[in-house]
């Protein structure tokens, strides 16, 4: 048993009631926040820059997942299934890398599953020439962006 200072909740039943109260309040808060669909896109609150709000200035509680290598490890069909599942299970945000290699469990050349590379040329050192984006690759990125939007999911897209 924990020694509690004088004047505080000293009985175990009171402590349990207090914990249950906190749990109920937390559940009600989460239910209230997740009950309405946000008006995207979210933005930084003008009254408090530490809070995200939707277009109606309603606070946005980010419930996220981080499938960083989704772009290079899922087909469009699998991505659609995954994102629908995330939305069904209460997630409203995903963090995805636009281009990813081995550091996020993607292929070393950052290609899509079908072999499409993100850029069409490389520099003399072997790095991609960022001035030569591959339209086919970024068309797939657009598909993922649209899949997120159609499932009501905010996309945090990480560039290179």
Write the layout of secondary structure elements.
Layout: H1 12-35, E1 43-44, E2 52-53, E3 64-65, H2 70-73, H3 76-88, E4 93-97, H4 135-150, E5 154-158
Parallel strand pairs: 3-4, 4-5
Antiparallel strand pairs: 1-2
Helix pairs in contact: 3-4
Which percent range fits the helix content? 25-40%
Nearest-integer average pLDDT? 85
Radius of gyration: 22 Å
Biggest sheet, spatial arrangement of strands: 3-4-5
CATH class of the largest domain: Alpha Beta
**CATH homologous superfamily designation of the largest domain:** Glycosidases
The CATH topology of the largest domain corresponds to TIM Barrel
Class by SSE composition? alpha/beta
Q: How many E strands?
A: 5
CATH architecture of the largest domain: Alpha-Beta Barrel
- In whole angstroms, the N-to-C terminal distance is 52 Å
Number of helices: 4
Which descriptor suits the 3D outline?
Answer: elongated
**Content of β-strand:** 5-15%
Number of domains: 2
Order of helices and strands: HEEEHHEHE
Task: Characterize the biggest β-sheet.
Answer: 3 strands, parallel
Poorly predicted residue ranges: none
Account of the protein in words:
By secondary structure, the protein is an alpha/beta fold. The protein folds into 2 domains: 7-36; 39-158, Glycosidases (TIM Barrel, Alpha-Beta Barrel). The protein has helices at residues 12-35, 70-73, 76-88, 135-150, and strands at residues 43-44, 52-53, 64-65, 93-97, 154-158. Helix 3 runs parallel beside helix 4 (135-150). It starts with 11 loop residues before the first helix and ends with a strand. The model has no long low-confidence stretch (mean pLDDT 85).
